[in-house]
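Hi support team,

I've been running sequence recovery on a batch of backbones for a student project. Most finish fine, but this one hangs at about 90% for roughly twenty minutes before it completes. I'm not sure whether the input is malformed or the queue is just slow. I've pasted the structure tokens below so you can try to reproduce it. Let me know if you need the job ID as well.

Thanks,
M.K.
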């Protein structure tokens, strides 16, 4: 890696993406560091205390890692639409003893202020932001604390706003990425540009170093994003079946299932655009799912948890990027080194 990332000491320019919800935990972050690269702890859906515990766990073996934060950018939900959606999916919850119509409307900021206090008081090498752009004063707090700051963007306009906020680098995320899109306008689906094309568009809007993310699953894809001007590739889906992944058994099995042929962008599970393997829940409920994050996430959470425990992939958020066929069952370090082998 060159330029702004040199100080992190990561010689392998293929990084392990943050994957909230358990898939990307301390084991995967350590494996990325041991391979010569860097991984991100996902702070999303954790309390500040839980995040602090995971940071301590990672620091026991490496000082080279980052933390990804969900920056506030709420999508207010229409309560009538949410109630109608709860009623529509209630039939899926009944076999599990769930009353989804009784789930309270929850609008939270993912413990943002306390996580900012934690990470500025006890800094980590790198902090990245997604979903929203922190104000410039908050960005400067992280920089004064000694953390490199990186913002996820999905188009040129977002890149200009992030540059004005004062971050050090940008993660350019294409719509081909698995899991949630970092779009700042989650009321509409992100445009489907090829990642090299998106990198060129963002480069026209910002001179900051660019990290590329979205559908990267082969050495050729890594070479393509470097040729397009990226200083690093960030991969997630291709690591989900690795030995160090925290992905659930149904999720792992679905990624390897030859009957799963397609990924789709959907807000059915969380009210915010996210790419997942097509399953029955997406087929039946995507068209009627309201925009509304995190309210829809909290509504469907008990159902997804119960279905995961029961091994039922048809009701689970099977996050996956377009390169999911390349996800393999082997050590994460081997996957990262192979992806970088053609550079």
């Amino acid at each position: 890696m060159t330029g702004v990332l040199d100080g992190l000491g990561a010689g392998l320019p293929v990084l392990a993406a943050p994957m909230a919800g358990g898939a990307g935990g301390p084991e995967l972050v350590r494996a990325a560091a041991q391979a010569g690269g860097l991984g991100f702890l996902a702070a999303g859906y954790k309390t500040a205390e839980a995040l602090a515990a995971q940071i301590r766990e990672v620091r026991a073996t490496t000082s080279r890692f980052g933390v990804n934060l969900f920056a506030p950018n709420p999508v207010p939900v229409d309560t009538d639409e949410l109630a109608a959606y709860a009623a529509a999916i209630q039939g899926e919850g009944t076999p599990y003893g769930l009353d989804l119509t009784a789930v309270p409307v929850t609008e939270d900021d993912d413990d943002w202020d306390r996580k900012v206090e934690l990470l500025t008081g006890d800094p980590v090498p790198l902090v990245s932001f997604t979903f929203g752009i922190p104000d410039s004063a908050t960005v400067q707090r992280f920089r004064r604390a000694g953390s490199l700051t990186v913002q996820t963007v999905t188009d040129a306009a977002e890149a200009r706003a992030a540059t004005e906020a004062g971050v050090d680098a940008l993660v350019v995320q294409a719509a081909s990425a698995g899991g949630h899109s970092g779009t700042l306008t989650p009321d509409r689906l992100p445009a489907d540009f090829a990642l090299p094309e998106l990198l060129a568009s963002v480069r026209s809007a910002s001179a900051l170093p660019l990290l590329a993310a979205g559908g990267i699953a082969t050495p050729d894809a890594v070479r393509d994003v470097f040729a397009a001007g990226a200083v690093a590739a960030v991969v997630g889906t291709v690591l989900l079946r690795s030995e160090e992944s925290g992905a659930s058994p149904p999720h792992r099995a679905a990624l390897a299932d030859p009957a799963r042929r397609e990924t789709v962008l959907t807000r059915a599970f969380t009210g915010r655009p996210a790419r997942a393997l097509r399953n029955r829940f997406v087929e039946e409920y995507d068209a009627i799912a309201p925009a509304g994050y995190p309210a829809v996430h909290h509504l469907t959470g008990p159902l997804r948890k119960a279905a995961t425990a029961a091994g039922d992939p048809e009701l689970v958020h099977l996050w996956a990027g377009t390169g999911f066929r390349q996800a393999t069952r082997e050590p994460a370090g081997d996957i990262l080194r192979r992806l970088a082998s053609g550079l």
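--
Follow-up from support: It reproduced on our side and the slowdown came from queue contention, not your input. The chain has two domains: 3-74+109-241+325-339, 77-108+261-317. No action needed from you.
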